[in-house]
Design a protein that fits this description.
The chain is mostly helical. It has one domain (2-163). The protein is 90% helix and 0% strand. The protein is built from five helices and no strands. The protein has helices at residues 2-37, 40-53, 58-79, 83-116, 123-163. Helix 1 packs across helix 3 (58-79). The longest helix is centred in the C-terminal third of the chain and has 41 residues, at 123-163.
Amino acid sequence: MITDIVLLASVIAAVSAGLVAGVFLTFSDFLMKALMAAQPSGSIQVMQIINRKVYGSVFLVLLLGLAALCALLIVYALVAAPPSAARWLGAGGAIYLIGVFLVTVLCNVPMNKRLDIVQPESLAAALYWSNYAQLWTRWNHVRTLASAGAALCFLIAGLMLIRA
């Protein structure tokens, strides 16, 4: 019974991490490139709107909900999981919590908060934008790879749980 619940949780985590990776990939692959090619004032306005709209989004539910699920899966991996699955559950949870959740909280969100208070038409905003866009995108690459890696780990963990 518990193994079935953990298997379901692992599948949910894999799918959720994959969806989160897809959103991050969208930003890294072409959205930020498009914003960097436009005039800074327009790009800043668009990014400010995106950053405000994310707070009421399904994406935020996935991002935060998955962090909580990862913590639970790590605990299960440490306490009761079969060894073959435990490694993958623990790795997936750690990769997500460090490479996605912590990077978001410590890097991307503070940059977004600073961007939110700038006046898009100002010279200071234009100067901040060029640094922001490059650094924010680098951290977003980390989040993209980490969420994709976590998805893969959770998928493998699910396969190990089926075998157990």
